[in-house]
Amino acid sequence: MNVSIIGTGYVGLVTGVSLAAAGHHVVCVGRKQEKVREINAGTAPFYEPGLDDILRRVIAKRRFTASVELSQSIISSDATIVAVGTPTVDSAIDLSQVKEVARQIGEALYQKRSYHIVAVKSTVVPGTTESVVRPILMNASGKSAGEVGLCMNPEFLREGNALEDALYPDRIVIGTSDSKSARMYAKLFSNNTCPIIFTNLPTAEMSKYVANILLATLVSFSSEIGTLAAQAPGVDVADVWRIVHADSRWSPMVKGKRVTAGIVNYVRTGCGYGGSCLPKDTKALLHYANQKRVSMPMLTSTIAVNDQQPKELVKLLSDSVGDLRGKRIAVLGLTFKPLTDDIRKSPALTVVGELVKRGAQVVCHDPQIPASKKPEELHALTVTIAKEYWDALEDADAAVLLTAWDIYTKILPQEFLRRMKSPIVVDGRRVYDPSTFIKAGIRYAAVGLAR
Ligand code: NAD
Predict the structure, then answer these.
(1) Considering Cα of 183, then 188, then 190, then 196, what sign does the dihedral take?
(2) Which of 151, 271, 277, 364 is catalytic?
(3) Which residue, among 206, 212, 208, 219, has the nearest Cα to 301 in the 3D structure?
């Protein structure tokens, strides 16, 4: 099939190259000429493991291009996928990008004669595709229902694992209100062996929120248990989770071998959830529930606990260091998780902001955040970005680990002792062994570990 995708962000680009790899002809439409040029030269505008390789392969096979020509790209395709951003503004979903794109697609379709499918992939609250996208699209295109098919195809990819998730998804969800568009849109996935779940539009929309909010709930539950464990002398939450995870419902025996389910990663105490999805999706669904006059105490608490969790890290630091004013604090990790360069709503931003507010001298390091390119999110803060993690540790009064990047997990206690002014290490991800660190002479503190 010929496919146009609006949006060249994580979802648009990853979806585009995966569909091109499956044999379709794809045009990804972006807004900035410079970004489009970069993509056409085989370099993704963000870091995602393996993406540049597959991008170059599909470009070489002439199955993929990026373009700023929205109208022509739509007219020359059979289906258009909407993969633009849906941020929250004042805790409510901001549909301005979706609305603008619906109008642009409609205007382009005004000039097209043959049947066309429009699929919303952006995460949108239930009812959006039917009540917001459809009227704009139909008005602008002047088409009748039989001439344009409308689908909702939520995306479940995880940054850092996005290619595998897009190439080999667990399930494909296609929400529609007519069987013709469902049948035709499903052809895009004829190479996939996973189940295709057909449903109506609002159920498809809701399923994405529920999948994300369940993960957020597990993370906040784990944060809350960590806060209690820290006040329960002798309790180590890392061991508690190891014991819980050993339940065969979390880690079943498969062919005589213990297999740990991926969901287990959300059931351990850390810095809380971040990134471009869980923080905004939890808030958007809560706002939607409020509009429906449905109270959601669990979701409300999930958000409140998560807002608090980065502050627990600052508390651990100030309990260990004392007054933070003038103290040099090394921050290891800025991204919301390893294997991405995404720092949107990362817990590290709250920690860094709070440290600066308390007068600390903050030196950050992250393997995906170059020292020469201070991220926009940190512009207003007086912080230094170190080129190497050891530069951040040099002469530091304390170090706090916020992202479990592999290189940090390999730092030995001796290196902290050698480089730092005082060997205080706060482990926000429970990657170090407390007894090894304490025995080596580190003043070790961690989430969920009683003092
Ligand atoms: P993103 O912000 O990285 O990318 C969106 C892109 O759309 C931006 O580059 C923006 O410039 C572009 N855009 C907006 N309007 C446009 C227009 N009129 N023409 C051309 N381009 C336009 O967002 P993302 O992370 O890719 O997420 C996109 C959607 O998918 C969101 O609704 C998000 O919630 C959802 N989602 C994201 C992920 C993820 O891990 N990032 C996973 C699943 C679902």
Answers:
(1) negative
(2) 277
(3) 219
CA of 422 to the centre of ligand 1 (A): 43
Contacts of 357 (CB under 8 A, 6+ apart): none
Average pLDDT in the 285-297 region?
Answer: 98
In tens, the pLDDT along 39-71 reads 999 999 999 999 999 999 999 999 999 999 999
Q: For ligand 1, is residue 336 a contact (CB within 6 Å)?
A: no
Measured by CA distance, the residue closest to atom 32 of ligand 1 is: 122
Ligand 1 atom closest to 84 (CA)? 7
Q: Are 148 and 79 in contact (CB under 8 A)?
A: no
6 lines ligand 1 (CB under 6 A): yes
Q: Read off the tokens for 424.
A: 């205080």
Cβ–Cβ < 8 Å for 399, 426: yes
Per-residue 3-state assignment (H helix, E strand, C coil) for the chain: CEEEEECCCHHHHHHHHHHHHCCCEEEEECCCHHHHHHHHCCCCCCCCCCHHHHHHHHHHCCCEEEECCHHHHHHCCCEEEECCCCCEECCEECCHHHHHHHHHHHHHHCCCCCCEEEEECCCCCCCHHHHHHHHHHHHHHCCCHHHEEEEECCCCCCCCCHHHHHHCCCCEEEEECCHHHHHHHHHHHCCCCCCEEEECHHHHHHHHHHHHHHHHHHHHHHHHHHHHHCCCCCCEHHHHHHHHHCCCCCCCEECCEECCCHHHHHCCCCCCCCCCCHHHHHHHHHHHHHHCCCCCHHHHHHHHHHHHHHHHHHHHHHHHHCCCCCCEEEEECCCCCCCCCCCCCCHHHHHHHHHHHCCCEEEEECCCCCCCCCCHHHCCCCEEECCCHHHHHCCCCEEEECCCCHHHHCCCHHHHHHHCCCCEEEECCCCCCHHHHHHCCCEEEECCECC
Q: Is 45 touching ligand 1 by the criterion CB < 6 Å?
A: no
pLDDT digits (tens, 9 = 90+) for 129-172: 999 999 999 999 999 989 999 999 999 999 999 999 999 999 99
pLDDT tens digits, one per residue of 23-43: 999 999 999 999 999 999 999
Instruction: State which amino acid sits at residue 411.
Output: I
Does the annotation mark 194 as catalytic? no
Decide: 159 in ligand 1 pocket, CB within 6 A.
yes
CA 10–ligand 1 middle distance (angstroms): 7
